[in-house]
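Invent a record, attention on tokens:
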Amino acid sequence: GGSRSGSEKGDDAEDAAGEGNVAATASDESGDAPSADSITILSVGCGDGAVDLEILKAIASAPGVTKVHYVAIEPVKSAAAACRSRLQRARADGELGPNVVAFVLEEPFDDRPLRPGSATPTKGFHSKHQFDVVLMVHVVHCFKNPYGAVQRAMLQTKPGGRIVAVQPNANGITQLGAELTRDIPGPDHTVFNADELKRLLLQHRHQYTMDTYETRLDVTQCLHRTSAGLKIMSECLQRDLRKLKEAKVMRILKGFWRLAVID
């Protein structure tokens, strides 16, 4: 499952130079600046773009929306390339129409905390409050300063706009990761979950709404221990299970069995 927290405040997916006005990227490259009835979207850490694409399709097809300007920033080269390819395939398949201008930039997002009264600009942005929607999908926990990243996202959101943050709940795969990878080298699995995001927003007195959705992962291949199943478990736990000894792989497999629901 995961929670979504909202806080007020060209023809193809192209790459673009990092430093510069991120908000202007889509309009500059397309030669068509956002109009009053267009929606501007910034995606912070878009990953492979799977969730972003669904949000893009929903917004682009909403009544009254004539154009969508979408700019994604992603520091990992392979993920940025995957997002770019996903958007290009969606356009080729007719899932995204000509009213969507999309660009993927390979660069990090500034997470330096904002001090009271500070006018320190966000790196890569020449002005503030440029986006109607800022997406932060499974990314808040990746920052050294999570609240700094949230502050910077707010700074780029137009008055009356929304930040949409998607974070996992503390159970399910998140729980497995914390339990099963403590003694396995790799990324820290103390994931900044939805409850922690809620506490952070309350602590700093930000208004928000939170929706909880139940999601399910088909682990059939995992339980059968196929190569595809090992890949899925590796992605979930951010560890390459092919490099682990048999005993550790079996412990992880038992964890998946424990949480699995057999239909």
Notes: The chain is about 35% helix and 20% strand. Strands lie at 2-8, 38-44, 67-73, 100-105, 131-137, 157-168, 208-213. The longest strand covers residues 157-168. Confidence is low (pLDDT under 50) at residues 1-12, 15-20, 26-31.
